[in-house]
Amino acid sequence: MPGLGSAQRWAAAAGRWGCRLLALLLLVPGPSSASEITFELPDNAKQCFYEDITQGTKCTLEFQVITGGHYDVDCRLEDPDGNVLYKEMKKQYDSFTFTASKNGTYKFCFSNEFSTFTHKTVYFDFQVGEDPPLFPSENRVSALTQMESACVSIHEALKSVIDYQTHFRLREAQGRSRAEDLNTRVAYWSVGEALILLVVSIGQVFLLKSFFSDKRTTTTRVGS
């Protein structure tokens, strides 16, 4: 029947638009907070950050040194009472997960005080809390529908894609920095070799010239 075919087409179109709208909603951030920052850390310097956290909240601190020196930095995490929760020296990258034991302001610091000449570029991601479920189970009397289950799977896949993209960007930036540093060293070494070769060549020329130059000897007679 014509009416039935038209209704099916409208239902299919509505389903497609519904999936698109849900996909857009998947990209909207939830109540959980995350601080993702890349900053410059000069030599002999220390940079601290602060975050207000409520008791029982699960948090994750992840950091990585992108450029500078041996790509290492000191990291320290303290609770509101000053107790050390995490402390590592000269780490290139690391990840630490903890659950806040009390309310208050937590502090985490990055230190480059052991370095005298080189500054560092540091990236960190501080995740506070967990993402709420897309479809809360409160006041639900039925299981998730097929579309809702697909949206949850897409949401988890998108989060994994974002994490992979972040790590690949960090690796690309670190690789580019190392390549530029290696290129600079090779350029300096090439210039040094050219200067040494020039000095040796000039020295050989003067040395060979001294072998073939005429040496006039003068003799003097001593009267008897």
From TrEMBL:
InterPro entries: Emp24-like (IPR015720), GOLD_dom (IPR009038), GOLD_dom_sf (IPR036598). Residues 46-128 form the GOLD domain. SUPFAM superfamilies: Supernatant protein factor (SPF), C-terminal domain. Its main location: membrane. GO terms for biological process: protein transport. The keyword DNA-binding does not apply. It is a single-pass type I membrane protein. GO terms for cellular component: COPI-coated vesicle membrane; endoplasmic reticulum membrane; endoplasmic reticulum-Golgi intermediate compartment membrane; ER to Golgi transport vesicle membrane; Golgi apparatus. Belongs to the EMP24/GP25L family. This is Transmembrane emp24 domain-containing protein 7. The gene is LOC110591311.
